[in-house]
Amino acid sequence: MEHLKNGILVHQKIYIEKVLKRFSLDHARPLSSPMVVRSLDVDKDPFRHRENDEEIIGPEVPYLSAIGALMNLASHTRPAISFSVNLLARFSSCPTRRHWNGIKHLQATSSNHAEILAIHEASHECVWLRYVIQHIREDYGLSTGKEAPTVMYEDNTTCIAQLKDGYIKGDKTKHILPKFFFTHELQKNGDVQVLQNRSSENLTDLFTKAIPTATFKKLVYYIGLRRLKDLKLCNHEGE
């Protein structure tokens, strides 16, 4: 923890240096993102499951120790690497050289169904919050006219279209219960408005997928992560 001119910075710089040295990566060349963008072709995906002819790396390679060390970072000061760490942790029982390369790279999408369920839950929370706000306004004699709709963001265009049209039984929706289209009714009533959030602006992509370097850097900045040397430089310039 460091006290800077504009606030307090929490970091694990010394811990990271120890981790890199422990795994003989303290002289490795820095990379700009924690994971390469994955291929849609399963056969070309570097993080696919072990193939029959692939050799499992032996105990001399500290795969589990590296995962544990990285999880500590991801859960405290480096949330931007959480997706990458969780993905690589899946192969802890039988890691291959490909997966170990992913660990070394790091040390330097949900389905439409899931999207519908998630926005359904968010809609319920939204209704409750709007009710609480309305109740407070009434108690204090404030204006109780029609409130503007609460904006909810979604990056899945198919999901947005389905919620706009309401439940229509078809191949894409037959496995989803009609009750989960509650958001459609809220939109009709003017309580909520579902707008598209472009993937390049979606902060949650940091935690759910491997993304291009430029997008990764932008989203990391948006969630408030800063490099210690950049903050110190700004501090000196402001003096």
TrEMBL record:
It comes from the Eukaryota. This is Reverse transcriptase Ty1/copia-type domain-containing protein.
